[in-house]
Amino acid sequence: MAGKVSTRGGVSSLAMRRGLCLAVPGLLLALGSAGAAQANLTITPTFDSTITGSSDKTTIETDINNAISFYNNNFINPITVSIYFTTATPPGVSGNYLGASQSSFYNTSYDNYKAALGSNANNDTVAQTAYNHLSSGNQPTSDSVLTGMKVTAPDLRVLCFSGAVANQTAANGNQYDGIIYLNSTYLSGFGGGGNYSPTRVIQHEVDEVLGIGGAGSQLNNVFNNQDSTNSIGPMDLFRYAAAGKASFTTSGTASSYFSIDGGTTPVVSFNQNPSQPTTMGDFGDWGASTTIGSTTTTNNYVQNAFSDSSAGTPIALTSPEGIALQAIGYDTPVPEVSTLALFGVALVGLVLLPRKRRPSAPAKGLDPA
Question: What is the reported pTM?
Fold first, then answer.
């Protein structure tokens, strides 16, 4: 739901690429994709002792591996994302939660991030549309209050930033791109008698480590007075109140939605619930319903800020989560055709149990060299 952990780190040179990123002294170069073997994004899970020592070890590990297979099978960015999984209680968390996550964050300039999105967008319909409409969204510029971008390390790496390394220290002393906490009390098959889908909770948190959902917006940090840099996240670039009208407010009476075409077509509503830090949903997660014209649709998507125990709509390349990942740089093997037509009615789900609370800390980092 809220309060992503951010730690220090530097991001060096930006690479403009059309294929694999090659590191050379002080810089990244682009390797043309012609003739190159296709490599996929690889999420590598590490299971801590709360999982490996559990009598439900096999079920839990299988659920995690099945959940991350969507990303490994559908995105071709040649990077490895390290995630540490645990069923321990997250630090600083109170109340009911299904899952929680900590992500590695870095600061960079809007101009550099925008240029990287443009370089990456050539072969993906969603990415092209999103990039072509950036001028309508929130823009950190020299004449605005907003000053830059705060982005997760995996998203920066898919866009060929060098130096965006994992920086979250897990209980075993090693560093990972993200740490994901799963509440075994509520998850089916995790030993606590729960009936919530572990796949959906795992994917909700993986999305955040990759850079969307709560980790894709800085509005929670703004709401909790934890953002001294006046930065925004990647999903804030696509947050609208109306066609051509960007939204960057924590007001509970506001309405905002995710759109990749300048606000003309709502994909899904954003959560706009500014409750107290222990109960609030992430502003970067989806809201409870989406209105398009005179039609309001209520659905249950993976990235809902709040969830019930129903099966819900699975994640897909054409679900709001898949669209969001493509918009911020995650590439698919074949460009999705007529994407906007595929989600003319969009989405979100029932509000019952808060999905998670993450501990929070001020974000720090270095601009690209």
Answer: 0.82
